[in-house]
Structure formats: structure tokens, C-alpha cells
Amino acid sequence: MKKRAIVMIAACVLLVLGTSAVFAGGTAPSGERTIAFYSGSPGGGWYPIAVAISDVWAKNIDGLSFTHADAGGAGNLVAIEAGKADVAISTTASIGDAVMGNPPFEAKTKKVMAIAAFSPEYYTLWVWKDSGIEQITDLKGKRIVPLPRGYTAEVLTRRLLAAAGLTYDDMAKIDHVDLSEGVSLMKDGHTDALANAFMFKGDPNITELSIYRPVRALPISGKIQQEMISGNPGLAPAMLPAGSYPGIDKDVPVLGFGLALAVSSELPEDLVYNMTKSMVENWEDLKLVSESLSHVDLPELANPHVGTEFHPGAVKYYKERGWM
């Protein structure tokens, strides 16, 4: 199973969005540097953030051009380690796995560093409130959408099932489709549970489901929760508040982590300093792109709980601002 996961993630790393995209290390005009920026699919929430940040960098730092690709939360970090990506949006959950060498990573990564901590996110599986599925163990024999292999939610789902004594083999059906298709499968009655990394309120995909029909967030607590967070500095216990979505009528224990901007340790310190500086100084424009960014206070960008060390260029800037 592990080898198959690594193969699938490696395949995802080679997927480039658009016919004109080029990976890091590709040709660029003389005097320019092409930055390979990995995020998410165009229909998701990460891609517009990546495009907006790269636009800010291109306008404020001479000689930079950008390409965009998507390999999922874990796959994006595999791309950094392989020298395919320079910058990537991921989660602290995947970053923690990367630096610790937890599956799906075959070894501890050496190139994955942080440039900024973004908004907090949460993880669990979602079912219909009247489905009769109330605990993780109730998923046995059910159909689930864990999202594509290499995505943070998919990696967490495999680990969650294992902590509950289950595997994919115990499920009636596994659909490794993207989030929008997973929502459609839920609404059409073709799957029973959908894994997701989500905002505690206002997540568009969960909102769509909950408007269609009341939902239930499966609780992750006790021994299962502790097993999930042990050995991963990017995971923490969290609580989904009652009233967050239609059908959530009491607080639900789930997993918490954060959205983060990772960067290759091989990028020069002065470049990362300028990238950090221009991003911060244009934050008022960036937060208009994403609901999640709009709730971030600027000093929180230097939050140390990102699962890895900050790049020296980012550290230099944050220390100048008194945030570190």
C-alpha cells in the first residue's frame, strides 16, 4: 500500500496545470528566474491564493516569472524535496509528516521550510446526519471519498482509519476524486462519507452539502485523536463549534492544523526576504482573494507552529517587524 501511495504521489507531481506550464529548472529568459509554485486545482481554494501571491511577487520583485501546478498537500512537498517546486501551499499536517518522514514520505525531508503560516483548518469525514453513521468505526462496509492520493485529507484518512482498526479494504468502495466531484457524489447518493480539510465556518463545499441536507461531522477523539497527533508537530486537537453548519448542533472534536506556505531551502535568503516583505506589504490585496486569508492577523504569519523551521529569509524579515 505504501509503495503504491508513493508511486501515485510521484505521478501527481508530474501533473502540470495547463499546456504552457514549466517546472522549476525549466528555461527562462536571461536574467530571470522561473519559480514553480504548487498549490491546488483551479476549482479549489488554494489555486487563487497562489496566483494572487505570485502576481504580487512578479510586480514587486524584478526578474521573476511563475508556473503553477498541483500535486496535493503531501505531493506538493514531495515536489519541493525533488527539486520540482520552489514554493508550495500545503498544510502543517503534511509539513509535519514531511519533516518527520511519516508516510507517505519515505524519509525525512531536508528542503521543506516555511515562509508563512496562514489560516487554521480542520479535518474529519462528513456524512448525512440521518445516515446512521455516528463514529469512525461505523464506516466499515461504506463508500467513502478520501480525495485523490497525495492530498492532505487522503493521507489523514488512511491514518484515521488505521487508528480505528480499519483500512481501505474494509470499505465497500473508495473514490479518489477531487472535492467538487466528491460533493456531487454525496448529493447524488453515490458515496456515504467525504473527507475534507475545511474552515470552521463558511467552507463553500460543506456549506453546499449542509444546505442540500443536514450533515454530521464524525468525531475524532480519545485514543484515536491522540494516535493521530503523536509524531506530527503540525497536528493538534481541535473543536468544531456547534452551529458551524446546519446539522452541527453540538461541539465536535476533530483534528486541527493550519494552511501554510512552504518554500525550498535552496532559494536564496535575499530572494525569500523580498518575497516575504512584498507579501506582507500587499496583504490588504491578498486577503480579498480568500475568506480564510481575511481572518489572518499579520503577526500570525510568523506563527512557529508550522511543522518545520522558517526559511532564514523569512526569519530576517519577521525579526525586523518584531514578530519573531
Describe the overall structure.
The chain contains 11 helices and 10 strands. Strands 1, 2, 3, 4, 5, 6, 7, 8, 9 and 10 form a 10-stranded mixed β-sheet that branches. It has 2 domains: 182 residues, Periplasmic binding protein-like II (D-Maltodextrin-Binding Protein, domain 2); 137 residues, 3-Layer(aba) Sandwich (D-Maltodextrin-Binding Protein, domain 2), CATH 3.40.190. With 324 residues, the chain is α/β, with parallel strands linked by helices. The N terminus is likely disordered.
Order of helices and strands: HEHEHEHEEHEHEHEHEEHHH
Report the CATH architecture of the largest domain: 3-Layer(aba) Sandwich
Outline: globular
Named CATH topology of the largest domain: D-Maltodextrin-Binding Protein, domain 2
The class by helix and strand makeup works out as: alpha/beta
CATH H level, superfamily name of the largest domain: Periplasmic binding protein-like II
Strand content: 15-25%
Distance between the termini: 41 Å
Total helical segments: 11
Residue-averaged pLDDT: 87
Counting structural domains, the number is 2
Uncertain residue segments: 1-30
Please tally the β strands and state the result.
10
Computed CA radius of gyration, to the nearest angstrom:
19 Å
**What CATH first level of the largest domain would be assigned?**
Alpha Beta
Write the layout of secondary structure elements.
Blueprint: H1 2-13, E1 33-39, H2 46-60, E2 64-70, H3 72-81, E3 87-91, H4 92-100, E4 112-128, E5 143-145, H5 152-163, E6 173-174, H6 179-187, E7 193-198, H7 204-212, E8 215-217, H8 222-229, E9 236-240, E10 252-264, H9 269-281, H10 283-286, H11 312-321
Parallel strand pairs: 1-2, 1-3, 5-6, 5-7
Antiparallel strand pairs: 3-10, 4-7, 4-8, 4-10, 9-10
